[in-house]
Amino acid sequence: MAKLGMLLLILCHGLIRAGRGVEADTSFQYYQFSNSGNSISVLGDAHIFIDDLALELTNKAAGRATFDYPVRVISASPQTSISFETNFIFSIENEPSTPQAYGAGLTFSISSENKTVGDPGGYLGLVTANPSTSVSTTKYFALEFDTKQDTQFQDIDDNHIGVDINSLVSQQAKPAMSGTIPVTLASGTHIQAYVSYNSVAHVLDVSISPYTNGDYVKPTVSLLSVPIDLSTVFNEYMYIGFSAATGAGTVRHKIWSWTFKTTTLNSTGQPVPTAPDSEYLAPGPSPGGFEHPFGVSTGGRVQSSAILGLMFCVSLSLSVNLA
Ligand SMILES: *[C@@H]1O[C@H](CO)[C@@H](O)[C@H](O)[C@H]1NC(C)=O
Ligand SMILES: *[C@@H]1O[C@H](CO)[C@@H](O)[C@H](O)[C@H]1NC(C)=O
Q1: 156 CA distance to ligand 1 middle (Å)
Q2: Spacing, Cα 42 to ligand 1 middle (Å)
Q3: Using 50, 70 and 90 to split pLDDT, how confident is the model at 288?
Q4: What would the pLDDT profile of 299-321 be if each residue is shown by its tens digit?
Q5: Tell me, what CATH number does 129's domain have?
Q6: Can you tell me which atom of ligand 2 is nearest the CA of 273?
């Protein structure tokens, strides 16, 4: 018998737009996705799958979804650099009617452009097989959650996580594991990914954890811990988001929740002090009419008052099936 539990869901979206001469960190949380005012742009197959309150990236070929606003990932001041942390929950599942279908996988990407959806199959909805001039100059960092082995891109297997820089041939890749436990990416299970980049130590860490016994447990040791200097890849502002692609048949790649946060660090790796939220966050539209007064972790380094703030939160009480 299914167990019903009460879950308080807080849908919150905080965002800071920095004006001239202002540097601010970016932070937002999607604990679910809805169609109104979500600040997500979708291309190709991607859409909000409202039955699930999820961001569905594919239902036939390839899709891409990006956060509407470019995110500052390089500090204008040479004294500082910008770290980021992102967690998201995804699932990759076949339609029951097409159990023999296979997908290619999904990516979390930080790209210099937000207008192109890539091709299906091994291109993971991120890059096109025959890039136009504008697309061939695109710079990107991507984490691939790849469920099909493409020899063209020197994939290690059909169930791996790889770090890609301006190429789908991964710089480093490992079979999907949560600690010492193998994880099947395309099992339909919800999987949480934990990604952090330290811009002073120049290390990218990636772990995953499948939903097991009612929870996600972040492994103590990262699956990938890659020395990498992303400042050579990034423009000052980049677009963040997801892409995915199917192979043959219907495979649904879904993002269920997503949090993202940048932190500006000084040269010794300490966070640059941030101003209190209330100083620079203006209340924004409240789509559901429920203002939630708590401070979201929207840190910012404020050097002038030229800030446009936008923030809204919705809290919902839902009965959910936890079984
Ligand atoms: C691309 O980003 C701009 C903001 O820089 C935004 O106005 C536009 O809607 C985005 N387009 C797509 C397709 O994501
Ligand atoms: C870095 O930040 C720490 C903590 O705020 C501070 O003590 C230190 O002096 C800063 N270092 C530099 C080089 O700015």
Answers
A1: 34
A2: 10
A3: very low
A4: 333 322 223 233 333 333 233 33
A5: 2.60.120.200
A6: 5
